[in-house]
Amino acid sequence: MNKLLTPEIHELIDVVHYRPAVSIILPFEPKMSLKNVLHHSLKIAADNVERELKENYATEMTALIMHKLNTIIKNLNYNTHKHSIAIYVSPIFEKVLYLDIAVEQKIIIDESFEIRDLVYSKKQLHKYLVLLISGKESRIYLGNSTSLDRIVSNTPESVNAYANDLPEKVANFSDISARKEIMMEKFLRHIDNSLDIILQAYQLPLFVLGTERILGHFKSLTKHAGLVVDYIPGNYEELSFEALKLVLSPSISDWKKVKQKDILNRLDEAASKKKLAIGMADVWREAMRKKGRLLVVEKNYKYAAQLGNGNDLLEELLEPYNKFSYIRDAVDDVMEKVLENGGDVEFVDAEVLKDYQHIALIQFF
After folding, report:
1. What is the DSSP track for 82-105?
2. Most exposed of 199, 231, 310, 347 (fewest Cβ within 10 Å)?
3. What angle do CA 240, 245, 251 make, to 5 degrees?
């Protein structure tokens, strides 16, 4: 977050830490919650901060921080359509971020601010898409840890809807199996086309269920193979929601693995569409141009750097460096920029992005 500070404050920060640095991260949806409920949550958070400050800091410092914090809380924007806020306060700095991401409430009192703390506070929502295909129909569901909700599509869900869409010479052909194959292909192509809109609206892992034969057909023609996390063979068209959840359970039990595979799938897709920035310099440039849709970075990856000619140019830190353009961790800065402009951030394990120079940015399509 150093880029938000003046060069003079940069110089001071190089000399001494300014404690305490208070970070409050919590859900904030004024359009969905009563104002007095939000006020109550903020008051509890502020009371917790004050209690800890009184235990560890001088009375004057506690009073200074609490004055700043209470002023920020008093002036919050209740007309926002965002989902959460992050409040940062120190003796020399204060800032509020209104964010599109869902978070778990978290209070951090430390030596400095870390935007990573914000990303770590994201709710890990186990949401995914399920496409169920049978020889008769298709259905698509939005799943989470507790439920499966059917998504209504404009595409006909029954294969019989394509019976009248056959060429005349085929429609009159006596070979029933040939007619069924052509109907099935048209059916599957329409399903695949409908996925364009659904996958754009729901940036979630996709599981495809069906018999071996149906899945074979689907794999041979789908444009979205790169986004499928797993194919689960079997005849599931008569199963209840509860039974379907049991079928899916082994595939989603290791959610971290599912999530990382889905992220890598999306990086590959973005690269194929030339919408992927790789490496710190390119990621920085596109993020500063407000093009960041999803930033993916390895945990604990940090990058000390300095600004080049212009705020969108980043250079590797060399000695001697210009203390006024010095950035202690460009990863922290670029995460903030992506979040501020409506994008999202995901962490993955070390070396997962070794082919992407440890950091990559999917741009808005």
Report:
1. -SEEEEEEETTEEEEEEESS-B--
2. 310
3. 145
Per-residue H/E/C for 200-244 = HHCCCCEEEEECHHHHHHHHHHCCCHHHEEEEEECCCCCCCHHHH
pLDDT at 5 over 50: no
User: How much is the pTM?
Assistant: 0.72
CB neighbours of residue 175 within 10 Å: 9
Angle between helices 280-288 and 330-340 (to 10 degrees): 30
**Euclidean distance between CA atoms 28 and 31, whole angstroms:** 9
Strands (E), the chain: 21-27, 84-90, 93-99, 106-110, 128-133, 138-143, 148-150, 206-210, 228-233, 276-278, 292-298, 305-307, 314-316, 326-327, 344-348, 359-363
Position of tokens 């869409």? 165
**Which residues have C-beta within 8 Å of that of residue 272, sequence separation ≥ 6?**
226
Top-level CATH class of 257-365?
alpha beta
- What integer pLDDT is reported at residue 365 of this predicted model? 77
DSSP labels, 265-276: HHHHHHHHTT-E
Q: Are 252 and 128 in contact (CB under 8 A)?
A: yes
Whole-angstrom distance, CA of residue 92 vs CA of residue 10: 11
pLDDT exceeds 80 at position 345: yes
Residue 186 to residue 5: CA distance in whole angstroms: 58
For the chain, how far is it from start to end, CA to CA, in angstroms?
A: 27
Note the pLDDT of residue 49.
96
Is it true that the peptide bond before 250 is cis, omega within 30 degrees of 0? Answer: no
